[in-house]
Amino acid sequence: MLSELQKFLTEHKRVSLADLKLHFRMDGEPLREMLNRLIRKGRVRKMEDGKKCGGCHSCADDAIEFYEWVNS
């Protein structure tokens, strides 16, 4: 599963947790655990926390939580 996540990140470069949940059909916590493992290995970084626009307040937190592939 970890290798599939790495492959997805290498292909897409920057993804939201919401996109990962949809693609892998998983809850956020197991995905965060795998992402944190890749972060510790220096392959992925969590983007600075996104900010809600202040408009409709309908964006879920996982929709503005982004991860980026950094290992070439």
UniProtKB/TrEMBL annotation:
Boundaries of every Transcriptional regulator HTH-type FeoC domain copy: 1-68
One Pfam family this sequence matches: FeoC
InterPro entries (alphabetical): Tscrpt_reg_HTH_FeoC, WH-like_DNA-bd_sf, WH_DNA-bd_sf
Taxonomy, superkingdom: Bacteria
Gene3D superfamilies for this protein: Winged helix-like DNA-binding domain superfamily/Winged helix DNA-binding domain (1.10.10.10)
The name this protein goes by in its record: Sugar metabolism transcriptional regulator
Taxonomic lineage: Bacteria, Bacillati, Cyanobacteriota, Cyanophyceae, Nostocales
